[in-house]
Amino acid sequence: MAQLSDDCFAFNGPLLPVDDVERLIAERVAPVEARETVTLREALGRVLAENVVAPVSIPPFDNSAVDGYAVRGDDLAADGEKRLTVVDHVMAGHAATHAVNSGEAIRIFTGAPMPVGADTVFMQEDCRVDGGSVVVPPGLKRGANRRLAGEDLRAGAIALPAGRRLAVQHVALAAALGLTKLGVRRRVRIALFSTGDEIVEPGSALPRAALYDSNRYLLSGLLARFNAEITDLGILSDDPNELKRALAAAAADHDLVLTSGGVSAGEADHVRAAIESIGRLVFWRVAIKPGRPVAMAVLPGTKTGHSAAFVGLPGNPVAVFVTFVRVVRPLLLRLSGALPEPLLAMPARATFSYKKRKGRREYVRVTLRAAADGAVEAVKYEQDGAGVLTSLTETDGLAELGEDVTAIDPGATVGFLSYASLVG
Fold first, then answer.
1. Are 129 and 67 in contact (CB under 8 A)?
2. pTM given for the model
3. Mind listing the pLDDT tens digit for each residue in 156-174?
4. Residue partners of 251: CB distance under 8 A and separation at least 6
5. Which CATH number belongs to the domain containing residue 398 in this structure?
């Protein structure tokens, strides 16, 4: 279960800054402890539980970086061509049968081991073959076109650190080291449901004044990017007793309980009340727009002695997306034992005017375009509403406006976060 204590957070202010959310998570939430071994084909997206130490060097031997001719550096001419006798050839996967002596060359192909005595390779297109000899040009430096043993990675070095969330390039490196299995953390177990009498399942009849539930599909897709183990509990009505029972049951065998809707200050927003009746609410409003009503809580411990985390997101889908990125994402990384993955905003030039309240971080949906002067410009989507899903489908990412910013004018530089960087 999640490694949370009942006093893992401490915040009593009206609005919790975004940076403080991430700091509290980093300082006071520990990863799940369970570990397992998986094959390389199962490792994508998993989090390493221990350092991977290179059992061999990459490459394991000096080899040629090109197709050409291996020669001795002592034979290189500073000026004028040099004629060398070709005494052997060596293909990748094979070793030369002759050493290279003075005045000699060996025909070699990319990836083939360097012959004894050779330390430099001429590219074949720079050479001229003349019978049993090769004529090489002047000016090549000693060691050119040679890959040294271990220049990529030396045996005994840490190839992949504990906490690395494995992408395709990391799995490829493990394969290049000859590994077939990796030790990883157990997947984070998450219970997911939506709340609200106005929400119905897609495909069912749509009553008047009802909406199809998009939030669970949005969150399921986002959670899948983090390789979480998801239990979809569907849609719960605005019934305080039902919510209380569902939350308590979900906390018993999950690391995180994640909901959307029901955490604002409205009379029918019952999630907060249910949480306070069975657990401890640690904050419920974050200084962020869209998405201010975000609840985080600690739910009762199970027989394992650990508690479950709870995060209640707003009901509007754009607010769900933004608060997932800034609250759930760092919590998921921490629970999974992954190393921090800071969100680095790239600079873009605003084409729009915008005013905001100081002390709150705001995210504006924008599309990028290339300006005539070569700069990258951010164009604001016309509709700002937190329920406008097309503002996510028709844009490229979010312009991040910091707490100290109160106004943006055309030409100002803003930080841009692509959707790919936010959910990758």
1. no
2. 0.89
3. 999 999 999 999 999 999 9
4. 191, 257, 278, 279, 299, 300, 302, 307, 308, 310
5. 2.40.340.10
